[in-house]
Amino acid sequence: MKPDYTEIVAGYKDKPGGIIEAYHAIQRAYNYIPEEAVAVAAQVFDMSKAEAWGVATFYSYLKVGERGRYIIRICESAPCHIAGAEEVVAALEKQLGIKMGETTADGKFTLELTECVGQCQATPVITINSKPYGDVTADGIADILAQCK
Ligand code: FES
Q1: From ligand 1's centre to the CA of 90, what distance in Å?
Q2: Is residue 80 domain-shared with residue 142, that is, in the same domain?
Q3: d(Cα 136, Cα 117) in Å, to the nearest integer?
Q4: Residues 29 and 50 in one domain
Q5: Distance (Å) from CA 98 to ligand 1 centroid
Q6: Is the shortest distance between the CB of 123 and ligand 1 below 6 Å?
Q7: 3-state SS class at 71
Q8: What is the distance in angstroms between the CA of the first residue and the CA of the last residue of the chain?
Q9: Cα–Cα dist 45/65, whole Å
C-alpha cells in the first residue's frame, strides 16, 4: 500500500526547503504528485495553494497529476531523432491508444518525451521507469510492452 501523503508532507514540515523534499518523497512513492497532495502541502507549509502549486510545477522533474505505473519516455534529442524516434513514437501512440503526455485509462502507461538519456550508442532509445532500451524499432514495441505486466 502507498504511504499516506499527508504523513509524508508532515515529515518535512520543519526542514529548510521542506516542501520540495516532500514533493520528491511523494513522487518516489506515487510516481507523481497527486493534486490533493499539493493542497495538503499548502496547509502544512503555511502558503497559498497557488504558491504550493507554483513550486510543484516549477521543476520539470516534479510531475503533478495522475501518471501510469509504467512511465515510458522517448528520447527526442538529435541522434535519436535521426535514428527514427518518430516511428517509435507513432508505434507507441498507436498501440497504447494515447498521445504523448497522456496516460492510458487503466493507469498502466504514461508516454513522455525526454532529452538525451546518455545512451546514444544505441539510438533510438526509450526508457521505461528509468530502465533504458536501446536500438528500439517500431516493430519491436509490442514485445517491449508485453514485458510490462
Ligand atoms: S540522443 Fe537519445 S539517448 Fe542520447
Answers
A1: 18
A2: yes
A3: 14
A4: yes
A5: 23
A6: yes
A7: strand
A8: 18
A9: 20
Strand, helix or coil for residue 3: coil
Domain check: are 79 and 34 in the same one? no
Atom of ligand 1 nearest to the CA of 119: 3
* DSSP three-state, residue 7: helix
Report how far residue 49's alpha carbon sits from residue 42's, in angstroms, rounded to the nearest whole number.
5
Number of domains in the chain: 2
Say whether pLDDT at 1 is over 70: no
CA dist., res. 47 & res. 13, Å (int): 12
Asked if residue 45 and residue 18 are part of one domain, the reply reads yes
Tens of pLDDT along 24-70?
999 999 888 988 999 999 999 999 999 999 999 888 888 888 889 99
Residues 30 and 91 in one domain: no
pTM over 0.90: no
Shared domain for 74 and 127, answered yes or no, is yes
Q: How far is the CA of 109 from the centre of ligand 1 (A)?
A: 21
Kindly give, in sequence order, each residue whose CB lies less than 8 Å from that of residue 59, ignoring residues fewer than 6 positions away. Answer: 20, 23
